Amino acid sequence: MQIFRLIFGKIDMFSNFVTQASNVMGTILIIFVMVVVNADVIGRELFLSPIAGVPMMVSMSIVAIVFLQTPQTFRKGRLTQNEAILNSIGNRNRFIKLTIEVTYALAAFYLVLQIFQATYPMFLKSWVRNTYEGTVGDFTAPIWPIKLIILLGCFLLMVQIILFGFRKILHYSEIKGGIKK
């Protein structure tokens, strides 16, 4: 059991580092979007010259930001959930609380896996065909980087969901077995 905890701890630490890096990339992208939107507005007002493709860049960036930041948001427990009900159940019966949390993890994993499986063929298609969005002569951008970010975000989120489930099971076994850290 001790070797499992050591391996789990190392995987957890590495996944935390990767999801933090992903979160930072999402934050940098937010700053980029803010700069581009402000530059576009200033360019329109002062120089009567907008920056080409800003609406498309913003819409593509929003998708990227969501998938870059969701794994760390999940890891930190900042996604919307009703802890009052769950804690009330946990005060009465810890096993039922564990069952709900593990069921939640399984359902979340399945949902994110479906997104991953639906996006993968679209990524391959956009990569092979070099599909782009925009208007030729005005502004175009390839779609495959956004699809790749969706796949990366889904993968990182699935890892976080698995770790969440294991964390809950380990915590329950420690409480049940009376193991002190």
Summarize the structure.
The chain has 181 residues and is mostly helical. Helix content is 82%, strand content 4%.
Verbal overview:
The protein has 181 residues and is mainly α. Helix content is 82%, strand content 4%. It is built from five helices and two strands, in the order ααααββα. The chain has helices at residues 2-47, 54-75, 83-92, 94-129, 144-177; strands at 132-135, 139-142. The chain has a two-stranded antiparallel ribbon. A hairpin with a 3-residue loop joins β1 and β2 (139-142). The longest helix has 46 residues, at 2-47. The protein is elongated and about 70 Å long.
Q: What string, H for helix and E for strand, traces the elements in order?
A: HHHHEEH
Provide the spatial order of strands within the biggest beta sheet.
1-2
The helicity comes to over 70%
Number of distinct beta strands: 2
Portion in beta strands: under 5%
* Average pLDDT for all residues: 91
Biggest sheet character: 2 strands, antiparallel
Q: Any idea what the radius of gyration is?
A: 21 Å
What coarse outline follows from CA principal-axis ratios?
elongated
Low-confidence stretches: none
Gap from first CA to last CA: 13 Å
> Number of helical runs?
5
* Structure class: mainly alpha
Assembly form of the protein: single chain
